[in-house]
Design goal:
The chain is about 50% helix and about 15% strand. With about 350 residues, it is an alpha/beta fold. The chain has a single domain, classed as TIM Barrel. An eight-stranded parallel sheet has the order 1-2-3-4-5-6-7-8. The protein is globular, with a radius of gyration of 19 Å. The chain binds adenine and zinc ion. Zinc ion binds next to β1. The site of zinc ion (ZN) has 6 residues, from β1.
Length: about 350
């Protein structure tokens, strides 16, 4: 490793766009599948990995939901979540805001309680044993109806003390934010943090309507905002964060190659962009691989990396005091011999 990749690997960072079901590595998927008697379309982990060639978001989602079906017991969700947290902590992730897709489990007859108890047990253990804090964001599947989303939302309310936010994911095309207006009104009334995927496969208009209709605090992906200058100006002024996922965007053909990714252009515009791994078991890398591959292809420099790491905490839902502590930690890391004041 060069000293620059070492620098990237070691910088304290937050991860804000991570689907826990997307961290199911083929080895764990095969092991849990065998344990639970769930058959998979792959003879082994290697064959699964080879099959992970996607043409777009939907082709990925089809495989992702099928693989998710191995998860049945509380122990499965616990094991999955703890494996991710160990990996994240080893890559200097100090804080993770983690998505989960309960409807992909309840639709298979798994109780919401089973899912959330398993995840929560791993979060508590990681908070105790690893240097990482966490928040949980419950995502609503946008290919399903708002009525089904509202049912999920109501069923989750007794577990509200474990849920920090409500998100919106799955197929963006054909499922506009307007479909979930009432659900997000409810989420605001209940005091949740709100975020939504937009501008991944959808264009700038999708980012605009998500902000105007759902009033979310962060946009997940958002890369297509760059097609609309007025929208970019507004996002720069408001500093509404965009949680970008470089490797995901390449694997799902949002960009043809990493050299064509617009992350650097977004940074140069002054947008509050962050780097995240989305579904690392499927896209070829966790957060450090995302930083390193983007930095290499786009010739990001030390200052860009520092800015991205700082943005990840600024864009988080941590308290101001915690944000300041992490920003200070980054300054100490990046400028060890200087007296830093913030
Ligand atoms: N669910 C898991 N990963 C996703 C992505 N990249 N976009 C939308 N929904 C998702
Ligand atoms: Zn995502």
């Amino acid at each position: 490793m060069s000293s620059f990749t070492d620098f990237i690997a070691g910088i304290p960072k937050a991860e804000l766009h991570l689907h826990i079901e997307g961290t199911l590595e083929p080895e764990l998927m095969v092991a849990i599948g065998r344990r639970n008697g769930v058959s998979l379309p792959y003879p082994d982990a290697e064959a699964a990995r080879k099959a992970y060639n996607f043409s777009d978001l939907q082709s990925f989602l089809d495989i992702y939901y099928r693989s998710t079906a191995v998860l049945i017991t509380e122990e499965d969700f616990y094991e999955l979540t703890l494996a991710y947290l160990k990996k994240a902590a080893s890559q200097q992730v100090r804080h993770a805001e983690i998505f989960f897709d309960p409807q992909s489990h309840t639709a298979r007859g798994i109780k919401f309680e089973t899912v959330i108890r398993g995840i929560e047990r791993a979060l508590v253990e990681a908070n105790r044993t690893l240097d990482i804090s966490t928040k949980l964001i419950m995502c609503i599947l946008r290919h399903l109806s708002e009525r089904e989303g509202l049912e999920m939302f109501d069923n989750a309310l007794p577990w509200k003390h474990w849920i920090a936010g409500i998100g919106l994911d799955s197929a963006e095309r054909g499922n506009p934010p307007e479909k979930f207006r009432t659900l997000f009104e409810r989420a605001h009334q209940e005091g949740f943090l709100t975020v939504a995927h937009a501008g991944e496969e959808g264009g700038a208009a999708s980012v605009r309507s998500t902000l105007d209709t759902l009033h979310v605090s962060r946009i997940d992906h958002g890369v297509h905002c760059m097609e609309d200058e007025n929208l970019v100006d507004e996002l720069v002024r408001t500093q509404i964060p965009l949680t970008v996922c470089p490797l995901s965007n390449i694997k799902l053909k949002v960009f043809n190659s990493m050299t064509q990714h617009n992350l650097k252009a977004m940074l140069q515009k002054g947008l509050c962009v962050t780097v995240n791994s989305d579904d690392p078991a499927y896209f070829g890398g966790y957060i450090n691989e995302n930083y390193i591959e983007a930095a290499t292809a786009l010739q990001l420099d030390r200052n860009d990396i520092i800015q991205l790491a700082k943005n990840s905490f600024i864009a988080s839902s941590l308290s101001t005091v915690h944000k300041q502590l992490y920003l200070k930690e980054i300054d100490h890391y990046a400028f060890p011999t200087e007296q830093v004041t913030i």
